[in-house]
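Morning run. Coffee first, then this:
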Amino acid sequence: MNRKWFHLWNIGRLRSKALDALALGRTMLLLAIGSLVFFILLGTGGMAGERLDNSPLPSMKGLAASLSGGLFKELLGMEVPHLPKSKEPSALSGGNVTSFVFQLLTSVNPGDPKSLLSREVPGMAADDAVLLRKGSGGVEGAPVDYHPGADEPAEATPAPTSGGSAGAQETPLPENSDAPAPSSAPAQDSGSADTELKRIMIYHSHPREAYNPLLSAKSDNPSSADPSKNVMMVGSYITQRLEKRGIGTLHSTVDYATRVADYNWNFSYKYSRVTVKAAMSENEGMSELIDIHRDSQRHDKTTTVIGGKSYAQVYFILGRSNKDWKKNEEFANKIHQLLEKRYPGVSRGIWGKSSGKGNNGEYNQSMSPNSVLIEVGGIDSTEAELKATSDILADAIADLYWSSHKAEKANTEGGTATAPAAQ
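And here it is:
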């Protein structure tokens, strides 16, 4: 009898274990199936996201770009005792490491509270700037766009004060028109035959971006139709410098809020595209298109001092929706590298931006591989700072121009092209 109960007890025990194993197996199977479905959906969503995201920077999502070159040097220094020590603060500081690890695990940048919401609010991260090339002027802050609270009212535009071919396209531009506008006024000859051919165009998609010191104001969003108080002044300085260097330069001083019927700020790049298209159709040799803006950050984030002289810093901006962005990046990088070599601290680097409020995703850069948007200074930059930066920026552009056109000019004239020296 005891043996019978013993066998029954063993059978019951084995049955209980078998049921437990089956339950555990079923649970594991459900978890495996659920994980498989999750990763399939995740992969499908990722593939769909890649197709929908026309960004040409899939491997440059900000985190990788934020790694300091000093970090790798310090890591090497741990193994190579005689590697020269950098005078810069350690990239392996507690704050840097903590910030990097936190961003790696959460995709949230502790220095940018907006990144916490941008993953949850559709469209909030659409215009996030992505660092492509670092500038010695610092990368702790991305460029900040100019966003007027409402469409800017039309105002009477004072007479332009720019050099070169100022006043280009001074007639109204239809909002939806791609037709060329009337011819621009001829530029004054600076003594070089080359200035008769317009090779470079300086223009402004946001011409009313202004500077507080020029307005004697303290605004977070200074705006003005006066070309002596907004980015047109910077364009004038650059144009005059390029003309002195013997390069024909066209400067557009169109104030779209005044010239365009039913003006809408959100169509800014649509308006400027018409201007650029018309200028290119009238100037066959025009190859370089530079859209001058200003940043919307304060003075401490847009200024540097070199040799006791204060300079407005610059950002180079590329449109991430432009399929040929690499050619534009190559052009921008040549200017950037010249500034880095001659005036380290002036450039805040090259940044890629996608479509957002008030732009077309490519900043009209598909019109020429030698096209770039450059932000010069911030809302608090002084005239002296803007003039100083305009001169060195124009010299970099001029040197690049003469270098790239030397062979062309030599073939045309049967001799060696000589670039006029900066005055």
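Confidence is low (pLDDT under 50) at residues 52-63, 118-126, 150-193. Good start to the day.
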